[in-house]
Amino acid sequence: MSVKAIPDGYHTVTPYLTVRNAPKVIEFLKQAFGAKMSYDPIKRPDGSIMHAQITIGDSPVMIADENEMAKATISTLYVYVPNVDSVYQQAIKAGGSNVMEPMDMFYGDRSGSVKDPSGNSWFIATHKEDVEPKELAKRAEAFHKQQKGKAA
Q1: According to the model, what pLDDT value does residue 151 have?
Q2: Residue 64: count of CB within 10 angstroms of its CB
Q3: Residue 109: its H or E element
Q4: pLDDT tens digit string along 41-53?
Q5: pTM of the prediction?
Q6: Which residue, 41, 66, 134, 145, could crosslink 52 as a Cys pair with Cβ 3.0–4.6 Å?
Q7: How many CA atoms lie within 13 A of 84 on its CB side?
Q8: Is there a contact between 17 and 52 (Cβ–Cβ < 8 Å)?
Q9: How far apart are CA 88 and CA 101, in angstroms?
Q10: Contact by Cβ (8 Å): 26, 32
Q11: What are the beta bridge partners of residue 64?
């Protein structure tokens, strides 16, 4: 029996977050997005998390506390959900800090953003409209003109 190059339940790309205070980030993800622990975290001798894995929807996310060899880095993740407004409010109640309240975007998603306790940005979105590439280019141009006008 041969081993699969990509294990069952994984995707070609799997996020791996190196954070400060992994238990707090994991608890936030459970409350904000309904994350489930895949198995008990593997701990270092000092009790910090060497490796943990959660699943949000159908996507695994690996998490570890920073250490001497791997310092915490800020990441941005994009999460599709059925109801962005509800999940955004849930994420705020779970301790996320507001970056952007949900709004309809030119590219066809309604999205908002929060930061977790370690500073990672989580864009939360519900896809509302399929936008063809030519239309997307026109909308992007209009969006940039509108943003430039706001900066003046």
Answers
A1: 65
A2: 21
A3: strand 109-115
A4: 999 999 999 999 9
A5: 0.91
A6: 41
A7: 22
A8: no
A9: 8
A10: no
A11: 18
Name the CA dihedral angle for 89, 32, 83, 18, rounded to a multiple of 10 degrees: 120
pLDDT of residue 1: 74
Q: What residue spans of the chain are helical by DSSP H?
A: 22-33, 84-93, 133-151
C-alpha distances in Å from residue 43, one per residue of 23, 40, 47, 139: 11, 9, 5, 48
In angstroms, the CA 152 to CA 80 distance is 33
Q: What tokens appear for 81 in the block?
A: 């959900």
Q: How far apart are CA 7 and CA 28, in angstroms?
A: 27
12: tokens are: 């070609």
| Sole residue written with tokens 């994350």 | 35
Give the pair of three-digit tokens for residue 131: 């936008």
The C-alpha atoms of residue 130 and residue 109 are separated, in whole angstroms, by 9
C-alpha–C-alpha distance, residues 152 and 59, integer Å: 41
**Cα–Cα distance for residue pair 16/77, rounded to 1 Å:** 11
